[in-house]
Amino acid sequence: MKTIKLTFYFLIALGISSCEDFLSEIPDNRTQIDTPEKISELLVNAYPSGNYMEFTETMTDNVFDSGDLTLTTLFNTQNYNWDVPIRVDLDTPALYWEACYNAIAHANQALVSIKELGDTKELEPQKGEALLCRAYAHFMLVSLWSKPYNPNTAASDLGIPYVLEPETVLLKKYKRNTVEEVFNYIEKDLEEGLKYVTNNYKQQKFHFTKSAANCFASRFYLIKGDWQKVIEVSSELGATPTGKLRDYQSYLDLDFRSREINYSSANQATNLLLASVNSVYYRSFYSNRYQLTGADLDQIFSSQTNVFGKNWFYEFLSYNGNITNFIPKYFEYFKITNANAGIGEPYNTLVLLSNDEFFLNRIEAHIMTNQFDLANAELQYFIGTRTEGYDPDSDIVTEELIRDQYPAIENEFTPFYGLTPKQASYIKAIADVRKRDFIHEGLRWFDIRRFDLKITHYSFTAPPNILQKGDNRRVLQIPLAASNQGIEKNPR
């Protein structure tokens, strides 16, 4: 049996790691990846171990200036002003870039090992997971460091390096694929991965199951504008996914700590893919200066933002953290690494994919295929699960209600595919629902990008900062260590 050593030349080539650790290893310190079980163990590390949620959330219109100068940090201020920090630290863009390519390296090594073991039917579940992991990490990279997908410009827009094999040479030079090339690679990996993925894991929620893979596919095809594919991969949900969405009403009976733990629990039916990552977001997401503030809470959670004119469950779950407000969605596990010194590493469990997002993607696809009666029923069901005192007999979503609550404004939502006035009202509605449901989780940033939304960040100590349509700051700058190794920077 061939002996395989998992190397990280790949990360070195992207300017992330030094070669000292690799070169200092004993020549015989090798791992024999010669069984399906060992490949499965390798794939545990094929999911990004970094956290994108702090920096993407801070760049959105969910965040305001609390005015509390004692909470001011350089990192939080830079994110609020779309000025990407260059440091490599927990919860930074540079570390997330590294985490994604680290995950890709593990997925690629797993695929090579599968091929060398004969690419047998027995190995298909591992092959499916590896392909999906590779696709997901590249998708997150291109969604942050490249322009939003537009078929009219994708062939020339700068993407990110799409890496298909482990490295065998030191300091290999990479070029950026185009956005079109990256999306084609992702789609190929995604479709092949969907053929083989199973639910046969000891801890299903930390791996790509069939449902998690379909949810990821729905996100990908939504960005690409392939509405029929979104509808196809989300068929398992139906029009009323009873018992599959987050039960916010049940959270009202829990104490604060239980709410924190439950949100990202594997026992929550809505949670499809979880990741335990090295992060301090639990400490910062409610205590940053630039965060959801009490003064601005009503902009997002007041009953006036509910189409039924009723209270949101979110508001009852929000807590006051001095001047800022937050919903308990994170819980920190502190792993002791040196008991005598009392030091260790903080970990947060993140919800990467959920039935809540999955269902909203499906509704959006129905809107874009002009199935408005179906979209009305689905929106009503979803909003009802978040509304205090919801009555399905009287709280009815209609076109008139949507148009009144979300009037179409010319040149406000401008995706590449264009919208009729009716579609614009509905898309505005679903984007607002998504903005509220995933607050603190950073998903709003991806809607701001794909709809090219103009947003303004106000400050008590600086002039208003406006992110205009087409602003280059919508695309993160390539990390310094990577650009120093020859990867082309984004325009500024």
What do you see in this structure?
It is a single chain. With 492 residues, the chain is mainly α. It folds into two domains: 1-51 and 90-198 and 462-492, Serine Threonine Protein Phosphatase 5, Tetratricopeptide repeat (Alpha Horseshoe), CATH 1.25.40.890; 226-455, no CATH class. 41% of the residues lie in helices and 9% in strands. It has helices at 9-13, 20-23, 36-43, 53-58, 74-80, 93-116, 124-145, 179-196, 210-224, 227-233, 248-251, 256-263, 281-284, 298-301, 313-317, 355-368, 372-384, 399-405, 421-437, 444-450, 480-483, and strands spanning 64-65, 271-278, 290-291, 319-321, 324-326, 332-338, 343-354, 455-457, 465-467. The strands form four sheets. Strands 2-7-6 form a three-stranded antiparallel β-sheet. A two-stranded antiparallel ribbon has the order 1-3. Helix 16 packs antiparallel against helix 17. The N and C termini lie far apart (51 Å).
